[in-house]
Amino acid sequence: METKGQLPPEYIPPQQPQQQPGFTPQQPQVITQQYVVNQPYPTYGNQGYVVQQGYPVQNQIMYTGGQPNVVVTQPTSTVVVNQRPSDYLACSLLTCLFCFFPTGIVALVFSCNSKQASDRNDFIKGRSDGNIAKIFSIISLCIGLLGVIALVIFLIVYFVVILPSLNSYNNNYDNYNYNNY
């Protein structure tokens, strides 16, 4: 027990042993032992988490030779959290309304299937249906954009080429009829 006013003893580092002449130190050998502890984790209801069972494999490393040292690594718990896959519902709804509705409806069906699969924690099926919904949304968007581009080209050709030529034909026909009478 320390009394008031006394300082703790001073730290003196341990002395390293002096190497003797003619002595060659041995290289340390590494011995590795693996162990696995299987201990299940609890699941927490319908939160979209997938829990990995047990601890991962850890290494216990022991160095021998010279002075023996033991290094032990602590087991760490690893929990793999899968995020809920995207169902692309908004994208499929918008492409159904504004682009090309037949493939948009198919995209809506697959996005609803993806949402239902994710709700029951079937993330593989949810991801698969979500990707199919994304593909049909992209197809619907491309068809819609091609339709808009075709419509714009048609309107330009109609108003720039066809309508003026019809007007000139009507004017020429009218002039021809008036000149002959």
TrEMBL record:
Single GO cellular component term: membrane
Compartment(s) where it occurs, according to its Swiss-Prot or TrEMBL record: Membrane
Principal location class: membrane
Alphabetical list of Pfam families matching this protein: CD225
Keywords: Membrane, Transmembrane, Transmembrane helix
Transmembrane segments: 87-111, 132-161
Renumbered residue ranges of the record's region Disordered: 1-25
Family, similarity comment: Belongs to the CD225/Dispanin family.
Protein name: Uncharacterized protein
Source organism: Lottia gigantea (Giant owl limpet)
